[in-house]
Give the backbone structure.
Amino acid sequence: MAVVLNLDPADRTPIHAQVERGILAAIASGRLEVGAQLPTVRQLAVDLRVNANTVAKVYAHLERDGVVETRRGVGTFVAARTLRHGAVEYRASELRRLVDRFLAELSSHGFNLDEARAEMDSRR
């Protein structure tokens, strides 16, 4: 599975955070579905031209968070996430908070919702 991530050397965000953000965005957009296999640590490091330890760190963090699961000798896969009791309400309130923040950022940069929607649709 080819994971298309864009790393920006001009971005002050650390490389490992950019890689993690890219994987999470691919999952959120549906480009990586539950059960999809991620590239090996070595392959993704070569593709992105980053240190393999950086990718290993990202995969370990995502595994601790339950986003991916590693099957020994097989690979790393997008995990199916189960919701704990009370998580539905929390997720709904968290989504509202994130959307509010997103809309405020759009406005502060001079963008509108239609422009953002078009950009998000282009990423499917």
